[in-house]
Amino acid sequence: MIEAVQWRGASPDDAAFRFPEVSLRLGSQLTVMENQWAVFFKDGKAMDVFEPGRHTITSKNIPILIDIVRGLGIIGNIFECEVVFVNKSQLRANFGGQAYSAPSGDIKYQAELGFFGYMLYKVEEPKLFVTEFFGNRNASGSEDIARYMRGFIVERVIDQFAEHDIFNVVRNVDEVTDSISKTIDAEAKRIGITIVDTLFEGVKIPEDARRFASGMGQQAMAMQYAKETAEVLPEGGGGAAGAGIGAGLGFSLGQQMMQGQQRQQQPQQAPQELVVCPHCGARNPVGNRFCSGCGKSMEAPKTVKCPSCGADVPEGNKFCGNCGSKMQVENVCSNCGTKNAPGNKFCASCGQKLG
Hints:
single chain, 3 domains
């Protein structure tokens, strides 16, 4: 028989604590700390929620639970249930892993991307949260919740990266991570959680992926892929292989060779000079002011040096496409417009506090 229930010794990282199968008497004391909720829980369902304070348990302040146990014909002055204490404070969940980009280009190239960061979240709906974790997922404590949250984030990051081709990831990594964060926030509300912030501390893009994202790199990798595939085909096409890969790729390569011989026999013409669009990778004739593929300006975007590796990074990007480090942004004074070095708290020109 328990006369008083309280969650003592809770650390800032503990999301919840479960008192299983407690026998309580009407008139018992329940103490809820300032940053907690206490949720009465029975048969996989969250019942009554108690706010911070000291509570004497009566039939009036646990009406939902009382109705259920009375319906079972077992209510007296003593009843059995579980009490789950939930932390109201902001919590942190670290994450990291690998994901693949969407298939890109003619050879359906997929890059393996590394990522890591952390998420700040708060429990917003205690009854929904307790039902989801302690009812549906049978969690026993904070470690089970932390393990689930890490998996929850990584699974959604992997799913979202799979919707972006490598061209978009290389050129717009900050926009891609922002869209992933919004998706995580929307889905977290289904389990009673609000996302305060999701921060990607780094996104690792392989060197061959950055090369592929350029027009010339894509052509080179396609030619190498064709060469390697042709080398492994058996002599004579290999029966079924000849009817499949051999008939397709072999015919294509043969046709290209015939076209090459025909071009050699024809009068040589000066090849048209092309440039690659810095936004979408489309090839355009030299002199085009706007891309024929995406319509954006063909002028190369302004770049700044990465403070970690020295690579040229498009101005405004939040992360370096070469090393994945977070970029430092100059502080612009709202008073006089002077650009100040990252980390300055006051303007070097007018002394105004930087926001």
